Amino acid sequence: MSLITKKIRNRSYAYISTREGKKIVHKYIGPVDAPHVQKQLAIHADIKVIPEKFRPLFWDTRLEDIDVKKNAVYIIERILDMGSLDALDWIQLVYPVKKILGVLAASRVISEKSRNFWRLWFGC
Predict the structure, then answer these.
(1) What pTM does this model have?
(2) Residue spans per domain, the chain
């Protein structure tokens, strides 16, 4: 998921861009100067880095060295195995649920106790 802006004439408009299979879908949010769009832009700016409040989950790595896109599996595994519901909310903003469920199913790192909990949580 990414947030993009397009300028049409003198105004800028925001869209959420997601990939559905091989297609890229743009969903209109609204004009960039609208308060609800400003809020979404602020949230999206925080998505590019792991928030400082989750530093204890990544005690063995510098947060600055973790790339949110390249290290997606590592981040999802850590949060599902040791994270809180707050951390789960954050990864659901960053990654599609399908990706999270894929990591949950394939991971050898996530403990069975955590795996069973998240299977019940997600209903799978």
Answers:
(1) 0.68
(2) 1-47, 50-124
